[in-house]
Amino acid sequence: MQRASRLSRELAMLSAEPPPGVSCWQSGARLDELRAQIIGAAETPYEKGIFDLEIVVPESLPVQNAVIFRYPFEPPKIRFLTPIYHPNIDSAGRICLDVLKLPPKGAWRPSLNISTLLTSIQLLMAEPNPDDPLMADVSSEYKYNKQLFLINAKEWTEKYASQQKRALEEKTNQNETKTTNESVTQKRKGSTVSKKEKKPRLDP
């Protein structure tokens, strides 16, 4: 109850007063499975890109006659669903960021919240940390050939996160859904006609 109550308050806060360029919502029936979007900041290679993220909040653990609430004592697991060219984010969307890890290696503490984490990720997008990379080749490029890094990051943003691409995908999905529904309707009509044709005639 304590965990659910806190998550509900956090989601309400994110809905009422979201950080600029950030949104978050419940993805299904479960309160601990969330989705988020971060808009790439201006003057970065991710500008105007729309990046989807998955947030999984740690489940509570029943122990004997008690329940251990893992959140907020453990951080949520957050990963990018949209591919992004970044030294601290790998091809699986995993993020290297201190506030996403427990001490002593990390900086997570129960007073932090999902809004804070998303804002920190947004800041990491704008200011990569090449000295603590997940992608060594991208980190090296960022440190020693910044112009090439910017070109590649912009290309990935246009390829995977551009608003035009997302609009096209949504339109394609809508068309596919419409085609599927029409196909199902035609099959049902055909089945009805077939049944009528097979109805035996009575001899006069």
Write the layout of secondary structure elements.
Blueprint: H1 2-16, E1 22-26, E2 33-39, E3 50-56, E4 61-63, E5 66-68, E6 77-80, H2 114-126, H3 136-144, H4 146-161, H5 163-198
Antiparallel strand pairs: 1-2, 2-3, 3-6, 4-5
Helix pairs in contact: 3-4
* Lateral arrangement of strands in the main beta sheet: 1-2-3-6
Helix and strand pattern: HEEEEEEHHHH
Radius of gyration in whole Å, from Cα? 24 Å
Shape: flat
Question: How many helices does DSSP assign?
Answer: 5
Straight-line N-to-C gap: 74 Å
Would you report the number of β strands? 6
State the helicity in percent bands. 40-55%
Low-pLDDT regions: none
Structural class: alpha+beta
Beta strand %: 5-15%
The mean pLDDT is 87
**Main sheet?**
4 strands, antiparallel
Account of the protein in words:
With about 200 residues, the chain is of the alpha+beta class. Helices cover about 45% and strands about 15% of the residues. The chain has a 4-stranded antiparallel sheet. A hairpin with a 2-residue loop joins strand 4 and strand 5. Helix 3 (about 135-145) crosses helix 4 (about 145-160). The longest helix is centred in the last third of the chain and has 36 residues, at about 165-200. The protein is flat and about 65 Å long. The protein starts with a helix and ends in a 6-residue tail after the last helix. The relative contact order is 0.12.
Name a few traits of the molecule.
4-stranded antiparallel beta sheet; 5 helices; two-stranded antiparallel sheet; alpha+beta; 6 strands; 204 residues
How would you summarize this macromolecular structure in one to three sentences?
This protein is an alpha+beta fold. It is built from five helices and six strands; from the N terminus they run αββββββαααα.
